[in-house]
Write a structure and sequence with these properties.
mainly alpha
Amino acid sequence: MALFEIVLVLLFAGALFAIWSDRLGVPYPALLALAGALIALIPGGPGIILQPDLALALFVAPTLLDAAYDASPRDLKRNLVSVVGLAIVLVIVTVAAVAWAARLAVPGMGWAPAIALGAIVAPPDASAAAAVLRRLRPPHRQMVILEGESLFNDATALLIYRLSVGAALTGSFSAWKVAPLLLLSCGGGLAVGWALARLQILLAGRVRDIPISVLLQFVGTFAVWLIADRLGLSPIITMVAFAMTLARQIGGRTDAHHRIASYVVWDVAVLVLNVLAFVLIGLQLRGIVSRMHGREWGSYAACAGAVCAAAVLVRLVWAPVFVGVVRWKRMRFGPRDPELMPTFRNAALASWCGMRGIVTLATALALPDGPTGFPFRDLIVFSAFSVVLFTLVLQGLTLPPLMRLLKLHDDGSVDREIAVARAETAQAALRVLQERGGDSPEAALLKSEYRARLLEEAAGSEPSTQGAGQDLPGLQRLAVQSQRESLRDLRARDVIGDDAFHVVEEEIDLLELTAEARVRPAPEA
């Protein structure tokens, strides 16, 4: 009961933190990290231990699907070199640096637990940085790179994490056996993720009830993770493939009611999972703090400080070096496209977007506990939370002023694509109205609205969804459907990316709801 009461209080606090974070311009996980630290200091709280596999499935699967669903394959492909540099190379370098720093601070720590610690703290949580950056509107390419990093750095880190945990528990490691398994887990994960997404789409098309549809989405998300894990595949690669296939195949085909309800529920679920992760890590830390005596405080503080320094400094050094190499290569060998040429101001911003979050907490919680648990578990959990707290608070609070100092501004690329999508979808609606509606009064009314939408877009104002309250169900449904098909076609041809797609898709949803409002009978007097 005490745990339930704490969770309720923290959920309420999480809602307040989300409101305050908007006003303060800081990511709400930074406030949650402070709350988790306070929980660790509360005496007499309940103790709880999660099963290792449950921690990863519970916290990582939904948040990863939420991020991967919005990712744009076109934009990721265009920035593949930068994403790979951050998501794979930088993660490996960070793991090595953190393991070396941890062993310097605690000489008795073996390489396997040190590497596990490095894998836990290596992947940044770009959603925390994105929560701040979206309000400040940085260049779109910068956001694509950071969000792409957050999708694939978890896969790199989790593979290293599982290998190191297995080596620490069994005392053996064979590179010759591991290499084929890694290839199989990644390649198989892509194939299984695609296949499960197609199955989910098939099932979703047969369910019209909204609560059941949303429930099946949650069941499907956790099922994908568990199936991949049982098959020995990479759950993260499988989940990314699953979510991106869903977004490309089902996006634009579901109706407004299902999509709006789904988005709202997922937003709430991600917030709740973030709150629960910090609650559980706070409870874990309370037990760790109660077991620390005498000189252990000094060794724990030294290890945490060394790990924090290594995790932050490696990224600070890596970003400008990587940008310098990319600029030299493109200046010498091409292409010299200014839009694809990274700058050192971009590097400075990326180097300070290394905030750790829920993935670090989940992998720390997933370490085996108990009498025969993981060596140095308490020290690793303490150090991991220290990195999360340090990066979220320090970098989260200083990111807005750094952004203003660097004077990086939105390049307007997404706005231009949104304008194209609005114009093309409105033209598609006009064509279908002319073909199916002819010169009827209802068709004339809808044509006037869509022409006004085109004029408003040309003038740079927001499109209007106001209209007369006539009985126009059939024609407006046809117009909305033609807009959805046009929008899907624009994305399929890479004329627009997923960011513009989702904005215009939301506007079409509003038009669909407006159409339904028109056909409802007026209330009786």
